[in-house]
Design goal:
single chain; 401 residues; alpha+beta; 2 domains; 57% helix; 17% strand; elongated
Length: 401
């Protein structure tokens, strides 16, 4: 009986193709929107996790100023110095320490020039920040201490300056400073917010301080924790040391912040999940609208086919069989909309991933849930028209014009 009901349902749907498509359009839009939102959200979460991992998951970042607000009273935050970094390096919780100083400059090679960001640091920076070399070598400890005119470039800088030429061993000009390229970084791609992580140059921090910035400031200190040291223990040790060095009294607020990269990843993923959930909830309203559309068209269909229903009841069809026929028709319509919506949602998510540079991460569970939910929409909103058809009086139905 179910197979026969499905055959009749398909025949009825194909008889009015345009009306059937317009009927399921709400379900298509709702399912597609939900699938696209959830898939893009999961891709964004994967991108955030990958970006944070690329920075080093066991890393702490020490910065001047309170987190997100600056020091008390709005006074300028006291910058760190290289001596602060040396003091942090003496802590048992610290395996590696890399002070950083930032600058931006125009880099010139032959007839090409690019504007890029400069990161001044030490020989430990590549390991702490989880950078690997595609070619060349890292700076030595002696070069870092002396502020030697050497640099390591990112893949984007290589493409823009050198094209297919091997950059290692070449001389580039950073502002008015001549610098030898000693290494090429392996590409990391886009970051969590779409920024190009490969658009940078790494130089000895003393060189950046003296020749580019003209000061002794350290913007941040990156710390790789020793094996077996918990994040809480590492943060506590660094905070105690910096409060002592910066002479912060008991009960006074810190004028610096210590950030755990795992905490950053968790916060970003939480924000991303909330936003994805809100957008998916809004998109799910389209499913409700689609269900109402199905119920409306099914009621119209019952009215149009009153004589057909009367004939079936008159020749022996039971009310249950008529109920099943129209209920199956509503479910088939809804499932058809669900299938089209799933395909459209995956296509939209893939296109958004390509455009935004995030992974395409479809979830089989979400796809199955969307398919089941579309079937439930058909059952819920198709039951009332089907019951109305099943309860018709055969004699009155045959009299209908």
């Amino acid at each position: 009986m179910i197979i026969e009901a499905m055959r009749l349902a398909l025949r009825s749907i194909l008889r009015n193709k345009l009306r059937s498509f317009l009927t399921i359009l709400g379900v298509v839009i709702g399912v597609a929107a939900v699938i696209a939102m959830v898939t893009v959200g999961q891709g964004s979460s994967q991108q955030v996790s990958a970006s944070v991992s690329s920075l080093g998951s066991d890393m702490l970042v020490l910065r001047p100023g309170q987190r997100g607000f600056g020091p008390p009273g709005g006074a300028p935050a006291r910058r760190f110095t290289l001596r602060d970094a040396e003091a942090v390096a003496t802590l048992p919780v610290a395996r590696l320490v890399a002070p950083t100083a930032s600058a931006s400059a125009t880099v010139v090679f032959a007839a090409s020039n690019v504007s890029t960001s400069i990161t001044g640091s030490t020989e430990s920076y590549l390991e702490i920040a989880n950078w690997t070399l595609a070619n060349g070598r890292n700076m030595t400890a002696a070069e870092a201490r002396a502020g030697a005119p050497v640099c390591i470039i990112g893949e984007t800088v290589r493409k823009n300056l050198f094209g297919t030429l091997d950059p290692v061993g070449q001389q580039v000009r950073v502002k008015q400073l001549s610098c030898q390229v000693i290494g090429l970084l392996a590409s990391k791609g886009a970051g969590s917010f779409g920024q190009d992580q490969d658009d940078l140059i790494i130089m000895p921090i003393r060189l950046v301080q003296r020749r580019l910035n003209g000061d002794q400031d350290v913007n941040s200190i990156q710390i790789a924790l020793s094996p077996g040291v918990s994040t809480a223990e590492g943060i506590r040790s660094v905070q105690d040391l910096m409060r002592e060095r910066r002479r912060i009294g008991l009960g006074a607020a810190d004028d610096f912040s210590v950030t755990d990269m795992k905490e950053v990843a968790s916060m970003l993923n939480q924000v991303n999940s909330v936003l994805s959930g809100m957008l998916s909830s809004v998109a799910a309203v389209s499913l409700l609208v689609g269900g109402i559309g199905i119920m409306n068209i099914m009621l119209v269909s019952v009215t149009e086919r009153t004589r057909e229903i009367g004939i079936r009841l008159a020749i022996g069809a039971t009310s249950r069989q008529v109920l099943t026929q129209f209920l199956v028709e509503a479910v088939v319509l809804s499932l058809l909309g669900g299938v089209i919506g799933i395909a459209a949602g995956l296509a939209l998510a893939w296109g958004a991933g390509v455009f935004m540079g995030i992974p395409f991460a479809p979830s089989a569970g979400v796809i199955l849930l969307a398919f089941v939910f579309s079937a439930v929409v058909g059952v819920v909103f198709g039951f009332f028209p089907a019951r109305r058809a099943a309860r018709m009086d055969p004699i009155e139905a045959l009299r209908h014009q």
